[in-house]
Design goal:
alpha+beta, Urease, subunit C, domain 1, 1 helix
């Protein structure tokens, strides 16, 4: 969506995080994990993406136990580099930590 100009990165964050949290009613002050702004004292739920990365999908390299993928062999844009859930790393350098 960003490459086509339909959304900017702020729009992606809105559609993929903020709005789903609102729809799921996870955006209230009592919720400490989803849909919260990135700010001091807030839990760090982050995804760091390398949008310039291009590579074909290799099902054997996926974290899933399943080896079938409709994207096998297709070149896709972007690569998840790191993710953090409530400040705890769940993906580092593209590999699941658990």
């Amino acid at each position: 969506m960003v490459a086509t100009g339909l959304l900017d990165w702020h729009g992606v964050a809105d559609r993929m995080s903020v709005r789903p949290a609102v729809i799921g009613r996870l955006d209230g002050l009592g919720n400490r994990s989803q849909g919260r702004p990135l700010a001091p004292g807030e839990p760090a739920n982050l995804l760091l993406l390398d949008p310039a990365h291009r590579a074909p999908v290799d099902p054997a390299a996926l974290a899933s136990r399943s080896r079938n993928s409709p994207y096998a062999g297709r070149e896709l844009p972007g690569r998840v580099v790191h993710t953090f859930l409530r400040g705890v790393p769940t993906v580092l350098d593209g590999k699941a930590t658990r």
